[in-house]
Amino acid sequence: MGSQTGKVIIVTGGSRGIGRAIARRLASEGGKVVIAARDRTTLDAAAKEISSAGGVATAVPMDLRAPDAPAALARAALDAYGAIDIVVNNAGATKRGDFQDLTDDDWSDGFALKFFAAVRLVRAAWAHLKARRGAVLNIIGVGGRTPGAEFTIGGSVNGAFLTFTKALSDVGIRDGVRVNAINPGFIRTDRLSGWLEAAAKKQGISLEAAAEEMVRRTNTVRLGAPEDVANLAAFVLSPEGTLLQGALLDLDGGQTKTV
To answer: 67, 79, 125, 227: which has the highest count of C-beta atoms within 10 A?
Structure first.
């Protein structure tokens, strides 16, 4: 039996990349995983991958930007399995670009999915997490630590999310709910692959050479894999991770240079 045996675990953004890897890992440890994302096809494929490996997964296709969607996701988990033990907030990408080119709608969209959807989902699930002495894990990003000119939206959203994690962790101490966050650096997701392909084409180099250049430029040990984040998530959510509370864990190969 794994450390998550019998636990009901919601993972947003669970159809691909980091969310998919986390859902797969926690299901392999016995968790009953409820995954949500907008794309039904990739979401169903992720659920099928988990079930084919002997795990338990329910796919709930939805757009978590809609104000009532997070509460509906919590209800779906309760309808499927009768409880909520863990919430992993992973959904949400923010638009990059020159500050002058980013519109109000771009800013609103960035906060709608990554920040407000997480707030609403935690609020909807909190009573159940409290009853089960459960956990919240927020997958945020190093842009909240070190924002940049091309990442004004993402840095702001992530910074707010980091602050929310710290504040919520105090509520968690009172209510018996563990609350922590992981800040991934450059992880080999579809999004990063797109950046690398564009860089490789622009510089006339191979994809692997573009990856090596990114590692050199950021002075990091290597690019990460979704499984790296899943491995840390599994530890944070395991019995061995119970002393972690309000922890903001940078998993970035040394990308964050500030204290």
So the answer is: 125
The one-letter code for the residue type at 171 is: V
Q: What is the pLDDT of residues 49-78, one digit of tens each?
A: 999 999 999 999 999 999 999 999 999 999
User: What is the pLDDT at residue 155?
Assistant: 96
| pTM flag (> 0.90) | yes
Region 140-161: what's the mean pLDDT?
95
Which pLDDT score is estimated for 234? 98
Dump the DSSP string for the chain.
--TTTT-EEEEETTTSHHHHHHHHHHHHTT-EEEEEES-HHHHHHHHHHHHHTT-EEEEEE--TTSTTHHHHHHHHHHHHHS---EEEE-------S-GGG--HHHHHHHHIIIIIHHHHHHHHHHHHHHHHT-EEEEE--GGGTS--GGGHHHHHHHHHHHHHHHHHHHHHHHHT-EEEEEEE-SB-SHHHHHHHHHHHHHHT--HHHHHHHHHHHHT-S--B-HHHHHHHHHHHTSGGGTT-SS-EEEESTT-----
Summary mean pLDDT of the chain: 96
